[in-house]
Each structure stands twice: as C-alpha cells, then as structure tokens.
Amino acid sequence: MKNAILLLLGLFIGAVGANIVGNALRARDAYARGTMDVMQHHYGSLRENLRAKQCNATKTAFALAQLRALSNEIEPAVYPDSTPESAFREFSSRLRDALDTGIATAPADCAALAPIAEKVGKVCDECHQQYR
To answer: With contact defined as beta carbons under 8 Å apart, do 63 and 38 qualify?
Structure first.
C-alpha cells in the first residue's frame, strides 16, 4: 500500500512538473506564434477573396497593410534576445519587398492581386520549410 501511494504521489508530482515546463515553453514562443497567426489570418483573407473572386480594393489594401506592419515584428518575435541569422533576415526582407510591391501597385482586382499573393505565399513557404 505504501508503494502504491508513493507511486501515485510521484506520478502526480511528475505531471505537475511537466505541466509547468510545458507552460513555460509555450509562453516563451507565444509572441512569435501570435504574430504568425495574425499574419496567417490576413494572408488567408487575401487567398479567400481570390478564391471567391471578390477582390475588393479596400479589403485588399487593408490586408496588405496589416501584413506589412506585422512583417516588421517577425524578427523581434522570433529572435527577441539576439540578432537573426542572415538567412532569416533575407526571408524577412524578401517578404517586406513583396508586400511593398503589393501596396505600391494597389491591386484593385483579382488579376492584379493573384501574383502578389502568390509571391507572398512563396516567400512564407520557403521560410517555413527552413525554420519550422
């Protein structure tokens, strides 16, 4: 009986310890995950508008502006205490360039938005292949 109680107590303490460690690890990456989730939301809205062939210039401009603003947060979110490596900085720079091009061209229809969304998606996919 004493061994069973000790075993249960050990399992309980181990579960609590694992929960504490898991929460600490999630909190460490929360800013980076949150930034990527919001970017995914805005990029997803662009993709949905393209699929539905309802590319409203105002909504497109808003989504591109939000993506551009969030692109400035990628490096501090992923590397909060250090300088990002050169490949990561290159991906961030390419994303900002693609978004700047999209904002400058101000796509008013789906035909103009499609290549911009494709370029942004390609940069995102390439970065995620290397860093996910």
So the answer is: no
